[in-house]
Protein backbone atom coordinates (compact mmCIF):
# COMPACT_ATOMS: atom_id res chain seq x y z
CA UNK A 1 0.00 0.00 0.00
CA UNK A 2 2.62 2.49 1.06
CA UNK A 3 4.75 3.71 -1.81
CA UNK A 4 7.69 3.83 0.60
CA UNK A 5 7.91 0.08 0.95
CA UNK A 6 7.98 -0.42 -2.83
CA UNK A 7 11.35 -0.97 -4.50
CA UNK A 8 12.57 2.22 -6.12
CA UNK A 9 12.52 1.88 -9.89
CA UNK A 10 14.74 3.42 -12.52
CA UNK A 11 14.30 3.71 -16.27
CA UNK A 12 17.60 3.78 -18.17
CA UNK A 13 17.63 5.20 -21.72
CA UNK A 14 20.67 4.84 -23.98
CA UNK A 15 21.21 3.90 -27.62
CA UNK A 16 24.47 2.06 -26.84
CA UNK A 17 23.60 -1.54 -25.80
CA UNK A 18 26.76 -2.04 -23.68
CA UNK A 19 26.21 1.17 -21.67
CA UNK A 20 22.63 0.13 -21.14
CA UNK A 21 23.72 -3.30 -19.95
CA UNK A 22 26.42 -1.87 -17.62
CA UNK A 23 23.96 0.57 -16.01
CA UNK A 24 21.35 -2.13 -15.58
CA UNK A 25 23.79 -4.56 -13.97
CA UNK A 26 25.11 -2.00 -11.47
CA UNK A 27 21.73 -0.62 -10.49
CA UNK A 28 20.17 -4.07 -10.09
CA UNK A 29 23.07 -5.00 -7.80
CA UNK A 30 22.02 -2.07 -5.58
CA UNK A 31 18.48 -3.41 -5.30
CA UNK A 32 16.76 -1.07 -7.73
CA UNK A 33 14.15 -2.29 -10.15
CA UNK A 34 15.48 -1.37 -13.60
CA UNK A 35 13.76 -0.88 -16.96
CA UNK A 36 15.75 -0.19 -20.12
CA UNK A 37 14.93 1.58 -23.37
CA UNK A 38 17.16 2.07 -26.44
CA UNK A 39 15.52 5.39 -27.36
CA UNK A 40 13.12 8.15 -26.37
CA UNK A 41 10.07 6.62 -28.08
CA UNK A 42 10.47 3.33 -26.20
CA UNK A 43 11.13 5.26 -22.97
CA UNK A 44 7.88 7.20 -23.25
CA UNK A 45 6.00 3.97 -23.83
CA UNK A 46 7.48 2.49 -20.64
CA UNK A 47 6.66 5.64 -18.65
CA UNK A 48 3.06 5.38 -19.77
CA UNK A 49 2.66 1.75 -18.76
CA UNK A 50 4.70 1.46 -15.54
CA UNK A 51 5.41 3.53 -12.49
CA UNK A 52 9.01 4.73 -12.54
CA UNK A 53 10.73 6.89 -9.89
CA UNK A 54 13.84 8.04 -11.74
CA UNK A 55 14.97 8.34 -15.37
CA UNK A 56 18.62 8.13 -16.38
CA UNK A 57 19.00 9.16 -20.00
CA UNK A 58 21.80 9.66 -22.45
CA UNK A 59 22.04 13.15 -23.95
CA UNK A 60 23.04 12.35 -27.50
CA UNK A 61 20.91 9.75 -29.20
CA UNK A 62 20.35 9.34 -32.95
CA UNK A 63 16.67 10.16 -33.44
CA UNK A 64 15.31 12.18 -30.56
CA UNK A 65 17.70 13.75 -28.05
CA UNK A 66 17.72 13.22 -24.30
CA UNK A 67 16.73 16.87 -23.82
CA UNK A 68 13.39 16.17 -25.44
CA UNK A 69 12.83 13.32 -23.02
CA UNK A 70 13.68 15.63 -20.08
CA UNK A 71 11.15 18.13 -21.39
CA UNK A 72 8.50 15.46 -21.82
CA UNK A 73 9.06 14.14 -18.29
CA UNK A 74 8.96 17.59 -16.70
CA UNK A 75 5.71 18.42 -18.46
CA UNK A 76 3.98 15.18 -17.58
CA UNK A 77 5.39 13.74 -14.37
CA UNK A 78 5.94 16.23 -11.57
CA UNK A 79 7.50 13.78 -9.11
CA UNK A 80 9.98 12.02 -11.42
CA UNK A 81 13.71 12.52 -10.99
CA UNK A 82 16.05 12.79 -13.99
CA UNK A 83 19.76 12.22 -14.44
CA UNK A 84 21.33 13.20 -17.77
CA UNK A 85 24.39 11.40 -19.05
CA UNK A 86 26.50 13.62 -21.27
CA UNK A 87 28.50 11.57 -23.73
CA UNK A 88 31.17 14.11 -24.53
CA UNK A 89 32.54 16.82 -22.31
CA UNK A 90 29.86 19.27 -23.26
CA UNK A 91 29.25 21.86 -20.59
CA UNK A 92 26.66 23.33 -22.88
CA UNK A 93 24.67 20.09 -22.94
CA UNK A 94 24.88 19.73 -19.16
CA UNK A 95 23.67 23.27 -18.54
CA UNK A 96 20.84 22.82 -21.02
CA UNK A 97 19.84 19.57 -19.31
CA UNK A 98 19.70 21.14 -15.89
CA UNK A 99 17.82 24.16 -17.21
CA UNK A 100 15.24 21.92 -18.82
CA UNK A 101 14.71 20.14 -15.53
CA UNK A 102 17.24 17.35 -14.98
CA UNK A 103 18.42 17.14 -11.37
CA UNK A 104 21.83 15.81 -12.14
CA UNK A 105 24.16 15.19 -14.99
CA UNK A 106 26.82 12.59 -15.22
CA UNK A 107 29.74 13.12 -17.63
CA UNK A 108 31.05 10.01 -19.37
CA UNK A 109 33.16 8.13 -18.45
CA UNK A 110 31.97 7.72 -14.87
CA UNK A 111 32.75 5.24 -12.14
CA UNK A 112 30.27 3.01 -10.36
CA UNK A 113 30.60 5.20 -7.28
CA UNK A 114 29.83 8.35 -9.24
CA UNK A 115 26.75 6.65 -10.65
CA UNK A 116 25.50 5.56 -7.22
CA UNK A 117 26.16 8.99 -5.72
CA UNK A 118 24.22 10.72 -8.51
CA UNK A 119 21.31 8.29 -8.11
CA UNK A 120 21.21 8.81 -4.37
CA UNK A 121 21.26 12.58 -4.75
CA UNK A 122 18.48 12.45 -7.33
CA UNK A 123 16.31 10.39 -4.96
CA UNK A 124 16.98 12.81 -2.10
CA UNK A 125 16.06 15.82 -4.25
CA UNK A 126 12.96 14.04 -5.40
CA UNK A 127 11.77 13.43 -1.86
CA UNK A 128 12.28 17.11 -1.05
CA UNK A 129 10.35 18.11 -4.19
CA UNK A 130 7.53 15.72 -3.37
CA UNK A 131 7.30 17.27 0.11
CA UNK A 132 7.13 20.78 -1.32
CA UNK A 133 4.43 19.86 -3.81
CA UNK A 134 2.40 18.11 -1.12
CA UNK A 135 2.70 21.02 1.25
CA UNK A 136 1.68 23.62 -1.31
CA UNK A 137 -1.44 21.66 -2.22
CA UNK A 138 -4.24 22.82 0.04
CA UNK A 139 -5.64 20.01 2.12
CA UNK A 140 -9.10 20.62 3.53
CA UNK A 141 -7.87 20.80 7.11
CA UNK A 142 -4.65 22.68 6.47
CA UNK A 143 -4.62 26.45 6.43
CA UNK A 144 -1.10 27.74 5.99
CA UNK A 145 0.04 24.65 7.86
CA UNK A 146 -2.47 25.12 10.68
CA UNK A 147 -4.06 21.78 11.44
CA UNK A 148 -7.22 21.39 13.47
CA UNK A 149 -10.96 20.94 13.23
CA UNK A 150 -12.09 21.87 16.72
CA UNK A 151 -14.48 24.78 17.13
CA UNK A 152 -11.69 26.63 18.93
CA UNK A 153 -9.37 26.35 15.92
CA UNK A 154 -12.18 27.22 13.53
CA UNK A 155 -12.66 30.46 15.46
CA UNK A 156 -8.94 31.16 15.15
CA UNK A 157 -9.07 30.52 11.39
CA UNK A 158 -11.96 32.89 10.86
CA UNK A 159 -10.17 35.52 12.95
CA UNK A 160 -7.13 35.07 10.69
CA UNK A 161 -9.34 35.68 7.65
CA UNK A 162 -10.72 38.86 9.13
CA UNK A 163 -7.30 40.10 10.21
CA UNK A 164 -5.89 39.35 6.75
CA UNK A 165 -8.41 41.62 5.07
CA UNK A 166 -7.30 44.69 7.07
CA UNK A 167 -3.98 46.28 8.03
CA UNK A 168 -4.94 46.68 11.69
CA UNK A 169 -2.50 45.67 14.40
CA UNK A 170 -3.08 42.20 15.79
CA UNK A 171 -2.26 40.88 19.24
CA UNK A 172 -1.95 37.09 19.33
CA UNK A 173 -2.07 35.46 22.74
CA UNK A 174 -1.73 31.86 23.85
CA UNK A 175 0.45 29.60 25.95
CA UNK A 176 3.90 28.58 24.79
CA UNK A 177 3.76 26.26 21.78
CA UNK A 178 0.14 26.90 20.80
CA UNK A 179 1.05 28.22 17.34
CA UNK A 180 1.23 32.00 17.73
CA UNK A 181 3.94 32.41 15.12
CA UNK A 182 2.11 30.09 12.74
CA UNK A 183 -1.00 32.28 13.08
CA UNK A 184 1.04 35.44 12.47
CA UNK A 185 2.48 33.90 9.28
CA UNK A 186 -0.97 32.82 8.15
CA UNK A 187 -2.25 36.38 8.54
CA UNK A 188 0.64 37.85 6.60
CA UNK A 189 0.61 35.30 3.80
CA UNK A 190 -3.13 35.52 3.28
CA UNK A 191 -3.10 39.33 3.30
CA UNK A 192 -2.52 41.75 0.43
CA UNK A 193 1.06 42.12 1.75
CA UNK A 194 1.99 38.51 1.10
CA UNK A 195 4.58 39.25 -1.56
CA UNK A 196 6.46 41.66 0.74
CA UNK A 197 8.57 40.34 3.65
CA UNK A 198 7.32 38.81 6.89
CA UNK A 199 9.95 39.69 9.49
CA UNK A 200 9.80 37.86 12.85
CA UNK A 201 11.58 39.49 15.78
CA UNK A 202 12.00 37.72 19.09
CA UNK A 203 11.90 40.70 21.44
CA UNK A 204 12.82 38.52 24.42
CA UNK A 205 15.86 37.07 22.65
CA UNK A 206 17.61 40.30 21.70
CA UNK A 207 19.51 42.17 24.46
CA UNK A 208 17.83 45.42 25.44
CA UNK A 209 20.84 47.45 24.32
CA UNK A 210 20.70 45.98 20.81
CA UNK A 211 16.96 45.87 20.30
CA UNK A 212 16.60 49.49 19.29
CA UNK A 213 19.26 49.38 16.58
CA UNK A 214 18.05 45.96 15.41
CA UNK A 215 14.50 47.24 15.03
CA UNK A 216 15.11 50.72 13.67
CA UNK A 217 18.59 50.50 12.16
CA UNK A 218 21.39 52.97 12.80
CA UNK A 219 23.28 55.66 10.93
CA UNK A 220 27.03 55.74 10.43
CA UNK A 221 28.76 57.05 13.53
CA UNK A 222 25.78 56.49 15.83
CA UNK A 223 28.05 54.58 18.23
CA UNK A 224 31.54 53.12 18.28
CA UNK A 225 31.72 50.43 15.65
CA UNK A 226 28.89 51.87 13.53
CA UNK A 227 31.14 52.25 10.50
CA UNK A 228 28.27 52.44 8.10
CA UNK A 229 24.51 52.89 8.22
CA UNK A 230 22.40 49.78 8.54
CA UNK A 231 18.70 49.17 8.06
CA UNK A 232 16.70 47.65 10.89
CA UNK A 233 13.87 45.11 10.89
CA UNK A 234 11.27 47.82 10.30
CA UNK A 235 12.95 49.00 7.10
CA UNK A 236 13.39 45.38 5.99
CA UNK A 237 9.68 44.76 6.54
CA UNK A 238 8.61 47.85 4.57
CA UNK A 239 5.46 47.00 2.65
CA UNK A 240 5.11 43.78 4.62
CA UNK A 241 4.56 42.72 8.21
CA UNK A 242 6.74 42.64 11.31
CA UNK A 243 6.05 40.02 13.96
CA UNK A 244 7.01 41.23 17.43
CA UNK A 245 7.16 38.02 19.42
CA UNK A 246 7.25 38.08 23.24
CA UNK A 247 6.24 41.73 23.20
CA UNK A 248 5.90 41.70 27.01
CA UNK A 249 9.69 41.35 27.26
CA UNK A 250 10.35 44.85 25.92
CA UNK A 251 11.46 47.59 28.30
CA UNK A 252 9.25 50.56 29.07
CA UNK A 253 11.63 52.76 27.06
CA UNK A 254 11.29 50.51 24.03
CA UNK A 255 7.51 50.52 24.47
CA UNK A 256 7.56 54.30 24.07
CA UNK A 257 9.47 53.89 20.80
CA UNK A 258 7.01 51.32 19.53
CA UNK A 259 4.08 53.50 20.45
CA UNK A 260 5.60 56.28 18.37
CA UNK A 261 5.97 53.97 15.38
CA UNK A 262 2.35 52.94 15.70
CA UNK A 263 1.09 56.50 16.02
CA UNK A 264 3.21 58.21 13.39
CA UNK A 265 4.04 55.31 11.06
CA UNK A 266 7.65 56.39 11.01
CA UNK A 267 10.90 55.20 12.53
CA UNK A 268 13.98 57.03 13.68
CA UNK A 269 17.26 55.25 13.05
CA UNK A 270 19.61 55.24 16.04
CA UNK A 271 21.85 58.30 15.80
CA UNK A 272 19.49 60.21 13.53
CA UNK A 273 16.81 62.73 14.36
CA UNK A 274 15.09 62.53 11.03
CA UNK A 275 12.10 60.19 11.16
CA UNK A 276 11.41 58.13 8.04
CA UNK A 277 8.03 56.84 6.93
CA UNK A 278 7.58 53.10 6.94
CA UNK A 279 4.61 51.07 5.81
CA UNK A 280 4.72 48.08 8.11
CA UNK A 281 1.89 46.06 9.53
CA UNK A 282 2.51 45.08 13.15
CA UNK A 283 1.61 41.64 14.47
CA UNK A 284 2.53 41.06 18.12
CA UNK A 285 2.40 38.00 20.36
CA UNK A 286 2.72 37.15 24.00
CA UNK A 287 2.16 34.16 26.26
CA UNK A 288 1.69 36.49 29.23
CA UNK A 289 -1.49 38.03 30.50
CA UNK A 290 -0.76 41.63 29.53
CA UNK A 291 -3.43 43.23 31.79
CA UNK A 292 -1.66 41.68 34.80
CA UNK A 293 1.69 43.04 33.65
CA UNK A 294 0.06 46.41 33.07
CA UNK A 295 -1.19 46.36 36.66
CA UNK A 296 2.36 45.74 37.82
CA UNK A 297 3.48 48.79 35.88
CA UNK A 298 5.67 46.81 33.49
CA UNK A 299 3.67 47.34 30.32
CA UNK A 300 2.13 50.53 28.99
CA UNK A 301 -1.60 50.46 28.81
CA UNK A 302 -1.72 52.81 25.79
CA UNK A 303 0.57 50.47 23.84
CA UNK A 304 -1.59 47.52 24.79
CA UNK A 305 -4.66 49.21 23.30
CA UNK A 306 -2.74 50.16 20.17
CA UNK A 307 -1.61 46.57 19.69
CA UNK A 308 -4.87 44.94 20.65
CA UNK A 309 -6.97 46.33 17.79
CA UNK A 310 -7.67 42.77 16.69
CA UNK A 311 -7.02 40.08 19.26
CA UNK A 312 -6.65 36.39 18.58
CA UNK A 313 -6.37 34.02 21.51
CA UNK A 314 -5.24 30.47 20.76
CA UNK A 315 -6.59 28.03 23.36
CA UNK A 316 -4.17 25.48 24.86
CA UNK A 317 -4.20 22.02 23.26
CA UNK A 318 -5.79 20.40 26.33
CA UNK A 319 -8.87 22.59 25.75
CA UNK A 320 -9.32 21.36 22.18
CA UNK A 321 -8.62 17.68 22.45
CA UNK A 322 -10.38 16.92 19.16
CA UNK A 323 -7.28 18.27 17.43
CA UNK A 324 -4.82 15.97 19.17
CA UNK A 325 -5.26 12.92 16.93
CA UNK A 326 -5.34 15.01 13.77
CA UNK A 327 -2.07 16.65 14.77
CA UNK A 328 -0.55 13.31 15.78
CA UNK A 329 -1.36 11.91 12.38
CA UNK A 330 -0.13 15.02 10.60
CA UNK A 331 3.25 15.03 12.38
CA UNK A 332 3.68 11.27 11.90
CA UNK A 333 3.19 11.70 8.13
CA UNK A 334 5.35 14.81 8.01
CA UNK A 335 8.33 13.31 9.84
CA UNK A 336 7.89 9.89 8.22
CA UNK A 337 8.37 11.55 4.83
CA UNK A 338 11.10 13.85 6.03
CA UNK A 339 13.23 11.00 7.38
CA UNK A 340 12.31 8.62 4.56
CA UNK A 341 10.73 6.20 7.06
CA UNK A 342 7.38 4.54 6.77
CA UNK A 343 4.62 6.35 8.62
CA UNK A 344 4.33 4.69 12.04
CA UNK A 345 1.19 3.15 13.38
CA UNK A 346 0.17 3.92 16.99
CA UNK A 347 -1.34 1.32 19.29
CA UNK A 348 -4.78 2.11 20.71
CA UNK A 349 -3.25 2.55 24.16
CA UNK A 350 -0.79 5.10 22.84
CA UNK A 351 -3.62 7.04 21.28
CA UNK A 352 -5.46 6.98 24.62
CA UNK A 353 -2.43 8.31 26.49
CA UNK A 354 -1.85 10.98 23.88
CA UNK A 355 -5.46 12.13 24.13
CA UNK A 356 -5.51 12.11 27.90
CA UNK A 357 -2.15 13.73 28.52
CA UNK A 358 -2.18 17.41 29.45
CA UNK A 359 0.34 18.75 26.90
CA UNK A 360 1.71 21.67 28.96
CA UNK A 361 4.05 22.46 26.05
CA UNK A 362 1.08 22.36 23.65
CA UNK A 363 1.49 21.63 19.93
CA UNK A 364 5.24 22.11 20.05
CA UNK A 365 5.54 19.37 22.68
CA UNK A 366 3.31 17.03 20.67
CA UNK A 367 5.36 17.71 17.55
CA UNK A 368 8.61 16.97 19.41
CA UNK A 369 7.27 13.73 20.86
CA UNK A 370 6.09 12.44 17.48
CA UNK A 371 9.27 13.52 15.73
CA UNK A 372 11.36 11.64 18.30
CA UNK A 373 9.19 8.53 17.97
CA UNK A 374 9.55 8.51 14.19
CA UNK A 375 13.33 8.79 14.51
CA UNK A 376 13.87 6.37 17.40
CA UNK A 377 11.33 3.59 16.94
CA UNK A 378 12.01 1.02 14.24
CA UNK A 379 9.12 -1.34 14.80
CA UNK A 380 5.98 -0.76 12.76
CA UNK A 381 3.70 -0.09 15.70
CA UNK A 382 4.47 2.41 18.44
CA UNK A 383 3.52 1.13 21.89
CA UNK A 384 3.16 2.86 25.26
CA UNK A 385 6.72 2.03 26.47
CA UNK A 386 8.07 3.97 23.46
CA UNK A 387 6.54 7.17 24.83
CA UNK A 388 8.62 9.44 27.08
CA UNK A 389 8.58 8.18 30.68
CA UNK A 390 6.71 11.15 32.12
CA UNK A 391 3.85 10.36 29.74
CA UNK A 392 3.48 6.74 31.01
CA UNK A 393 3.25 8.16 34.48
CA UNK A 394 0.36 10.34 33.43
CA UNK A 395 -1.27 7.33 31.75
CA UNK A 396 -1.10 5.20 34.88
CA UNK A 397 -2.32 7.89 37.20
CA UNK A 398 -5.08 9.17 35.00
CA UNK A 399 -8.05 7.67 36.80
CA UNK A 400 -9.66 7.95 40.22
CA UNK A 401 -9.28 10.57 42.92
CA UNK A 402 -6.72 8.94 45.18
CA UNK A 403 -3.80 11.31 44.97
CA UNK A 404 -2.77 14.22 47.16
CA UNK A 405 -2.43 17.73 45.84
CA UNK A 406 1.33 17.52 46.45
CA UNK A 407 1.59 14.45 44.21
CA UNK A 408 -0.45 16.01 41.46
CA UNK A 409 1.56 19.23 41.66
CA UNK A 410 4.82 17.31 41.67
CA UNK A 411 3.78 15.31 38.63
CA UNK A 412 2.63 18.40 36.80
CA UNK A 413 5.93 20.16 37.46
CA UNK A 414 7.84 17.13 36.16
CA UNK A 415 5.64 17.05 33.06
CA UNK A 416 6.20 20.70 32.34
CA UNK A 417 9.95 20.28 32.80
CA UNK A 418 10.04 17.27 30.49
CA UNK A 419 7.98 19.13 27.90
CA UNK A 420 10.65 21.81 27.63
CA UNK A 421 13.59 19.40 27.71
CA UNK A 422 14.50 20.27 31.28
CA UNK A 423 14.87 24.00 30.61
CA UNK A 424 14.13 25.45 34.06
CA UNK A 425 13.64 29.07 32.96
CA UNK A 426 11.12 28.01 30.35
CA UNK A 427 9.36 25.68 32.82
CA UNK A 428 9.14 28.47 35.40
CA UNK A 429 7.69 30.74 32.72
CA UNK A 430 4.99 28.21 31.86
CA UNK A 431 4.21 27.60 35.54
CA UNK A 432 4.03 31.30 36.24
CA UNK A 433 6.57 31.16 39.08
CA UNK A 434 10.16 32.34 39.32
CA UNK A 435 13.16 30.03 39.03
CA UNK A 436 13.86 30.10 42.75
CA UNK A 437 10.35 28.96 43.62
CA UNK A 438 10.64 26.29 40.93
CA UNK A 439 13.90 25.04 42.45
CA UNK A 440 12.37 24.70 45.91
CA UNK A 441 9.30 23.00 44.47
CA UNK A 442 11.53 20.56 42.59
CA UNK A 443 13.15 19.43 45.84
CA UNK A 444 9.72 18.79 47.31
CA UNK A 445 8.50 17.18 44.10
CA UNK A 446 11.41 14.70 44.01
CA UNK A 447 10.52 13.57 47.49
CA UNK A 448 6.89 13.30 46.62
CA UNK A 449 7.47 11.23 43.47
CA UNK A 450 10.15 8.94 44.84
CA UNK A 451 8.30 8.06 48.04
CA UNK A 452 6.68 4.68 47.42
CA UNK A 453 2.98 5.15 47.05
CA UNK A 454 1.72 2.07 48.88
CA UNK A 455 -0.03 3.55 51.84
CA UNK A 456 -3.36 4.41 50.28
N1 LIG B 1 -2.44 24.04 14.61
C1 LIG B 1 -1.21 23.65 14.28
N2 LIG B 1 -1.02 22.84 13.22
C2 LIG B 1 0.22 22.41 12.88
N3 LIG B 1 1.33 22.75 13.52
C3 LIG B 1 1.21 23.56 14.59
C4 LIG B 1 -0.05 24.05 15.01
N4 LIG B 1 0.14 24.83 16.09
C5 LIG B 1 1.46 24.82 16.34
N5 LIG B 1 2.11 24.06 15.43
C6 LIG B 1 3.56 23.79 15.40
O1 LIG B 1 4.01 23.80 16.75
C7 LIG B 1 5.26 24.47 16.86
C8 LIG B 1 5.10 25.67 17.78
O2 LIG B 1 4.33 26.67 17.15
P1 LIG B 1 4.70 28.23 17.29
O3 LIG B 1 6.17 28.42 17.23
O4 LIG B 1 3.87 28.97 16.32
O5 LIG B 1 4.17 28.43 18.78
P2 LIG B 1 4.25 29.72 19.69
O6 LIG B 1 2.89 29.90 20.26
O7 LIG B 1 4.84 30.84 18.93
O8 LIG B 1 5.19 29.22 20.87
P3 LIG B 1 6.16 30.11 21.85
O9 LIG B 1 5.25 30.93 22.73
O10 LIG B 1 6.89 29.07 22.62
O11 LIG B 1 7.01 30.93 20.97
C9 LIG B 1 5.66 24.86 15.46
O12 LIG B 1 6.52 23.87 14.93
C10 LIG B 1 4.35 24.89 14.71
O13 LIG B 1 4.55 24.61 13.36
MG1 LIG C 1 6.72 31.73 19.20
Can you give keywords for this protein?
456 residues, alpha/beta, 5-stranded parallel sheet, disordered C terminus, binds adenosine-5'-triphosphate, binds magnesium ion
Give the structure's gist in a few sentences.
The protein has 456 residues and is an alpha/beta fold.
Tell me which ligands are bound.
Answer: adenosine-5'-triphosphate, magnesium ion
Q: Quick one: how many beta strands? A: 16
Strand content: 5-15%
Uncertain residue ranges: 1-5, 137-141, 448-456
Figure out the total of helices: 19
Q: Over the alpha carbons, how many angstroms does the gyration radius reach?
A: 28 Å
Q: Strands of the biggest beta sheet: in what spatial order?
A: 2-1-3-4-5
Largest sheet, described in full?
A: 5 strands, parallel
Q: What separation lies between the terminal Cα atoms? A: 51 Å
As a percent range, the share of helical residues equals 40-55%
Task: Tell me what the structure shows.
- This protein is α/β, with parallel strands linked by helices and 456 residues long.
- The protein contains 19 helices and 16 strands.
- Strands 2-1-3-4-5 form a five-stranded parallel β-sheet, with helices on both faces.
- The two termini are 51 Å apart.
Show the helix and strand layout.
Elements: E1 9-13, H1 17-29, E2 33-37, H2 40-49, E3 54-58, H3 66-76, E4 81-86, H4 91-100, E5 104-107, H5 112-136, E6 142-143, E7 146-147, H6 151-164, E8 170-174, H7 180-189, E9 198-202, H8 208-216, H9 233-236, E10 241-245, H10 252-264, E11 266-267, E12 276-277, E13 281-286, H11 290-295, H12 301-307, E14 310-314, H13 322-338, E15 345-346, H14 348-356, H15 362-376, E16 381-382, H16 389-396, H17 405-419, H18 424-431, H19 435-450
Parallel strand pairs: 1-2, 1-3, 3-4, 4-5, 8-13, 8-14, 9-10, 10-13, 15-16
Antiparallel strand pairs: 6-7, 11-12
Bound molecules: adenosine-5'-triphosphate and magnesium ion (MG).
